[in-house]
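Journal club prep — side note

Before the paper discussion, L.F. wants everyone to see what a predicted structure for a comparable chain looks like in token form. Sequence:
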Amino acid sequence: MATNFLVHEKIWFDKFKYDDAERKFYEQMNGPAAGSSRQSSGSGASSGPGGDHSELVTRIASLEVENQSLRGVVQDLQRAVSKLEARLSVLERSSPAHRAAAPQTQHVSPMRQVEPPNKKPATAAEDDEDDDIDLFGSDEEDDKEAARLREERLRQYAEKKAKKPALVAKSSILLDVKPWDDETDMAQLEACVRSVQLDGLTWGGSKLVPVGYGIRKLQIQCVVEDDKVGTDMLEEEITKFEEHVQSVDIAAFNKI
């Protein structure tokens, strides 16, 4: 029974197959170097710590060489910086701004005491002259001059405004004057209307317009000043001619 079990269980007997498969897998992943390193691992292990020591010495030597080259570069940079600083200092000393800013030492002689001049006592006449000086007289004169100029300008403005013609409001009126009948003399009627003369009234053109049944009305244009002549006044003056005029109507009224 146990023998039959071992026949079917092959993992222990086929272990070398799995080891070969694993080695081939890693060789494919890492390349042929991994295989050679795996093969030379025995010889490397046999070499011992001597190989590691020689590799360490080689790296230390290469680092020392690199350190020496870096020191040389740093020294070259320091020399270049020192040369630039020296040149900059020379340029600053030779510039005119530096010369102007540089303090100039002057020899100062010891101060001597200067005696004040002898002051003469003021006389009575000089005191009177000082009293006559008016410190505020100039301000008063300036105020008077400014007031005079202001009054002069106001006067000139008033004269200019008085000379300028004022705007007069005017109106244009078209009147319809109707007679009593067709027998009314229209020429006489127009003469009566034009005989009305008022201040601010100016008569214009006229024409006869038929109304019907042989009757014609008089249409007459006039211009009036609004402040002087009104429509009521104009109608009242025209209707005074009762023999010829029946009525007066305003056909059109326009502001000018």
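L.F.'s comment for the group: Residues 33-49 have pLDDT under 50 and may be disordered. Keep this in mind when we get to the figures.
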